């Protein structure tokens, strides 16, 4: 687990990734889909930044843009710098020197990242060999070592396994091992545990943490589930309708949220510390279409606090306190609000059904293979 950093002073050399006013839109037959709208964030050396938001809020497109992995049709503006070097606009050949070596990405579904016809050891060793001139033997030994770091038991035997011989959780560890193969400075994990069983999720997050600590990389941890981020991030960015709507330390977001959507996410999270009597307050409604967004705050139709101004002007992401920003016309009134104050209380005790709704919103394709049966 990482230490929760209270917004340490950042120096220019500390910043490994800086994203500034990044926007991405896709021309479609129906019109322009504005998937990402002016996202800015910085990632400092060794820290974990959580990006959280419902499905369709632009989390993946933001990361794919800076990795150079979007389809050619995507219109990208703004800036994304790795250690001061602009990534946007690099061609495939230039990007392939950066990807894997300096910036590595881990996707939701390990099967799409692994080749079914090769043993995992060969795939990890190849990742090592792409960017380093070492012997095959050295690369293979490194593969075994990496498997050990991500917590795969009997690594020297498992290294010969094919992907289909492993459970989903074990496969995701292999993907993490590949991502860390070249000691990248930045790892971006996009919903790394969403396809996994809840018990396996925690183990994979531990593996990711072990990998990050081992190589001293900074991590962008993307998820729709605020609960996943709680014990693993230093800072959090909340995304809604293609924009950042709140950013701050974990404590800022969990204890002092100032944007109703962030409050709502917290309200729909089962809290162990509040016991069985705690009420869950789900956010009703669905996120807006990113095609022809109406003026005003995109959260307005779902916001219990909405006033006239919210339908007219989209609130900007503005600083409230040091390192803490929110985009809400009424953020100053939310100083000590709780989700139950703002959202209607459902007068039901926390029961398993509700917990399921809140915590597995996207859990399609659940991996039910237990780690013991791997
Ligand atoms: N290639 C594409 N063409 C058109 N729209 C896209 C494309 N890729 C993503 N989108 C749209 O961009 C929005 C953001 O998607 P995404 O970043 O994948 O969301 P998230 O990762 O937060 O679930 C969605 O509305 C999605 O439909
Ligand atoms: Mg996504």
Automatic annotation (TrEMBL):
Annotated ranges, domain ABC transporter: 17-266
UniProt xrefs under InterPro entries: AAA+_ATPase (IPR003593), ABC_Ni/Peptide_Import (IPR050388), ABC_transporter-like_ATP-bd (IPR003439), ABC_transporter-like_CS (IPR017871), Oligopep_ABC_C (IPR013563), P-loop_NTPase (IPR027417)
Cell compartments where the protein resides: Cell membrane
Pfam families for this protein: ABC_tran, oligo_HPY
CDD domains registered for this protein in UniProt: ABC_NikE_OppD_transporters
SUPFAM superfamilies, per the entry: P-loop containing nucleoside triphosphate hydrolases
Example GO molecular function: ATP binding
Record keyword Phosphoprotein present: no
Annotated membrane topology: Peripheral membrane protein
Keywords for the protein's UniProt record, in alphabetical order: ATP-binding, Cell membrane, Membrane, Nucleotide-binding, Transport
Family: Belongs to the ABC transporter superfamily.
Family matches, as PANTHER family: DIPEPTIDE TRANSPORT ATP-BINDING PROTEIN DPPD, OLIGOPEPTIDE TRANSPORT ATP-BINDING PROTEIN APPD
Name assigned to this protein: ABC transporter ATP-binding protein
